[in-house]
Fold this protein.
Amino acid sequence: MEDSGSRLPARQDFPHLSDAHWATLEKMASLLGEAAFAGFPNLPAEQQRARVERFDKYESSLIAHVSATAQEAARATMRAEAQSAAQASATSTASFVARPTTTKPVKMSVPTFDGKDSDSLVFWVREIEIALSAGQIYDARAQVAFALSNLGGRARAWAMARETATPGYFTSWSFMEQELRSTFLLANVAYRHRSSFLRCKQGKRSLQDYVMELHNLEAAMAGAPLSEDVKVTVFMDGVRT
């Protein structure tokens, strides 16, 4: 067999791998390229099987996650279409005049951001955005006021100092978010989340808990995402065999 890093190994060189193992190995090659086989032929047979099975578990986990998300999106679309059809039917019926169904605002509670834990800012910003949407708060100043009401500690003192010095300083939620990030989000936070992701191991945890931590770390570094091949490699290396 030729150098493993230069070409795809031949099927007959791996008689100890089942057809299912080989199919997964070919899938790894299609996703990661020939680099997926770097050093693979030199591993003991048991480690080769374990590596292939780790990839298969990770893929199954991702498929389940994506499938659940897609199903929920499909249900939401169907509900929206059904509501739209019902409203259209009511409008077109001359003998029946009714007020169109409207979605009522939902008031959500958002935890206070006090500026101490910079890592929590990313998730706090997302919670504010969800609350603004659920509460149907569309006015720029109202959005700013809502965000200000959910600040505490030195973060609130910082914001109110700017609003006091220059009334209306925060002209929009988007601008306020940028100011918060530049002030409280540490310059190396993305690097630290990336380092944590690359070092993440399953250890004694369940596979579900391990995958959940990877998802959380990935969300925290949304501004500087890793490539899919790197994420797959990290997962495979960190899974307990």
About this structure: Residues 118-184 form one domain. The chain has nine helices and no strands. Residues 1-6, 92-101 have pLDDT under 50 and may be disordered. The radius of gyration is 26 Å.
